[in-house]
Amino acid sequence: MKCLARLIVLLGVAVIAGGCSSMPARNPVPLDQAYRAQVFPGVPAVRAWAGSFSDQFEEDLVESVRQEMRTLPQHGAIQAPIINILALSGGAEYGAFGAGFMNGWTRSGNRPVFKFVTGISAGALIAPFAFLGPAYDPVLKEGFTTIGPRNIYQKRGLSALWSDSLLDSAPLAALIEKYITDDVIRAVANAHRRGRRLYIGTANLDADRLVVWNIGAIATSGRPGALELIRKIILASSSIPVTFPPVLINVTVDGKSYDEMHVDGGVKAQLFLTAATINMMQVRGKLGLKVTPEESTKLYVVRNATVGPEPEPVPRKLNSIMGRSLTQLLKSQARSDLERVHHFAHQQGFGFYWIAIPKEYKPQHKDSFNTLEMNRLFKTGYDLGLKKNPWRGEPPAIGQR
User: Fold this and answer.
1) Under 8 Å CB-to-CB from 31, ≥6 apart: which residues?
2) Is 395 part of a structural domain of the chain?
């Protein structure tokens, strides 16, 4: 985070030099048409605005239950299948904690199969493999314990003054291309057809909205460019604005081509649950499913950071003050998101369980994406995942660590 703060200080210089910018011109969607923009015209439920009702997403949710029911044995009365939901937060290199936790959770023998998985920022990098299950645990381990800064970014030098970011994220894009393969997307598509759903969030800077992408709907669309789009979505969700370049996604409105600017979903939320205001229990009722207390929905949240105060003296330096302020801002946002998701779960009658990096954890290396530090984070998550019951039930109280 301190490294990130030093980079952001350069933003002031970049702004001064902004008049010299030579970036290619954009073709943004007219603002009054933003809600009508489509990535794959004719393919429903590809994406939705977070916090706004989506009839397509609700219908897709109903269909997901039908798909799942077709895979289950029928014994008289229709029983609602148990629903397990996993929400993975942002956290940059601290995503190694979540990757380790998933590995440890598998080893404990207590890890369930998830009907829904959501990921944002670092969580977007974990989500596809957490969604696909324990067979992909080695991919998570490799992806978060063998990399360093060179695998995430390249320094631009003076060219940053006429660019759209301080760093070049080409190495991160190559890393995503390495791991998000045709085979992975086929596996996501197969899981989608069985009624499971994978959602990833990005921030649409033009529309000032969090966009939630239904990755399985894209994977099953059969459209050319589906794999490339999914890679772009994951890259966008992980692209810290100013530090990394934004990702332009091509869309159409009434047959005309435009582009949208997407960045790290953490700009809008550190974690999310659903893409729209959908009452899952009500949907299950509409399907005529029998719901009993023993078959309640369970929501698991993995917070790839700490949640409580971390007091330390701050040097009277610009980068130190900026870095400390940014860290506290993101932590406050994460706590609010955790409380919001808990409130939603309580309203819906879901079981609510969450974890975060333990307060006892103290980083030994301050530079971002340090390989040794990420291995420590992975081990911390792994050890926590091995425990019989590592979960907390209520969001942290103010001041709680």
Assistant:
1) 206, 207
2) no
CA–CA gap between residue 129 and residue 127 (Å, rounded): 6
Per-position DSSP letters for 264-276, written without gaps between them: EGGGT-S--S-SS
pLDDT in tens, 358-386: 999 999 998 899 999 999 999 999 999 99
Burial (CB count within 10 angstroms: exposed 0-12, middle 13-18, buried 19+), residue 308? middle
CA distance 198 to 165: 29
Q: In this structure, is residue 203 part of a structural domain?
A: yes
Phi, psi of 135 (to 5 degrees): -60, -20
Q: What is the pLDDT of residues 264-295, one digit of tens each?
A: 999 998 888 865 556 666 676 667 766 555 45
Coil, helix or strand for 300? strand
Is residue 398 a part of any domain in this protein?
no
Q: What is the pTM of this model?
A: 0.91
- Cα(240)–Cα(242) distance, integer angstroms: 7
Q: How crowded is residue 257: how many other Cβ atoms within 10 Å of its Cβ? A: 10
Asked if residues 335 and 307 have their Cβ atoms less than 8 Å apart, the reply is yes
